[in-house]
């Protein structure tokens, strides 16, 4: 049996296990989704959203791309955020990066990466914004890990800049935006403790889309 064929065998086993535990599992799953969380993470195959959060299917609305970027001209991520906020009423939006991110490391290299160049330029911009802090970190690994963290924080700020998030929070008190980093070396999620309310207040001096 090939690795591809094995997937279908795994799927059959998984489905049977769910039905044994709860005969109505798939009936309930098919009715609707009401997730409290929108998770925006990296496409890296080693960081599965539901598993690291310990949540079941239906609990997390997920968007993933290379290096967990939130680019305001990316209609994919912007559509996900708007749908999650306006239709699903998610209470929390999480940007989760991870140490060992190949996209962040690639953005630190002086190399032409072809079609990846415009995508990774977003991370290079983060490096430019925080050049002084990063230049003060002598250890290359620690500098790289700090850029992973700073990238997550900047992408979280990009979410707070959106009209959907600003208007929903002012009207309903949610969603709250969070910044996380997952450590592949121990499986632990680190909360970077983004102060959502203060950040919203600060950026509205320039990015206010509500007049409130």
Automatic annotation (TrEMBL):
SUPFAM superfamilies, per the entry: beta-carbonic anhydrase, cab
Cofactor note: Binds 1 zinc ion per subunit.
UniProt entry tagged with the keyword Lyase: yes
UniProt-listed CDD domains: beta_CA_cladeA
Single GO molecular function: carbonate dehydratase activity
InterPro entries given in the database record: Carbonic_anhydrase (IPR001765), Carbonic_anhydrase_CS (IPR015892), Carbonic_anhydrase_sf (IPR036874)
Gene Ontology CC terms, in alphabetical order: cytoplasm
A matching Pfam family: Pro_CA
Cofactor(s) required for function per UniProt: Zn(2+)
Keyword Zinc: yes
EC number: 4.2.1.1
Gene Ontology terms describing biological process: carbon utilization; cellular response to carbon dioxide; cellular response to oxidative stress
Binding site for Zn(2+): 42, 44, 98, 101
Top-level taxon of origin: Bacteria
Catalytic activity reported: hydrogencarbonate + H(+) = CO2 + H2O
PANTHER family found in the cross-reference section: CARBONIC ANHYDRASE (PTHR11002:SF51)
Family: Belongs to the beta-class carbonic anhydrase family.
Name of protein: Carbonic anhydrase 2
């Amino acid at each position: 049996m090939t690795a591809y064929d094995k997937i279908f065998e795994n799927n059959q086993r998984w489905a049977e296990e769910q039905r044994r535990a709860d005969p109505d599992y798939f009936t309930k799953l098919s009715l609707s989704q009401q997730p409290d969380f929108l998770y925006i993470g990296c496409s890296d195959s080693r960081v599965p959203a539901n598993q690291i959060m310990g949540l079941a299917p239906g609990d997390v609305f997920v968007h993933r791309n290379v290096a967990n970027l939130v680019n305001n001209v990316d209609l994919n991520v912007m559509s996900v955020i708007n749908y999650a906020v306006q239709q699903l009423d998610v209470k929390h939006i999480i940007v989760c990066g991870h140490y060992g991110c190949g996209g962040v490391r690639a953005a630190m290299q002086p190399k032409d990466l072809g079609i990846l160049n415009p995508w990774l330029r977003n991370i290079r911009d983060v490096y430019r914004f925080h050049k002084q802090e990063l230049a003060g970190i002598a250890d290359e690994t620690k500098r790289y890990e700090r850029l992973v963290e700073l990238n997550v924080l900047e992408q979280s700020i990009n979410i707070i800049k959106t009209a959907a998030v600003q208007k929903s929070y002012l009207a309903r008190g949610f969603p709250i935006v969070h910044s996380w980093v997952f450590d592949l070396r121990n499986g632990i999620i680190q909360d970077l403790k983004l102060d959502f309310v203060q950040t919203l207040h600060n950026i509205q001096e320039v990015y206010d889309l509500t007049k409130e």
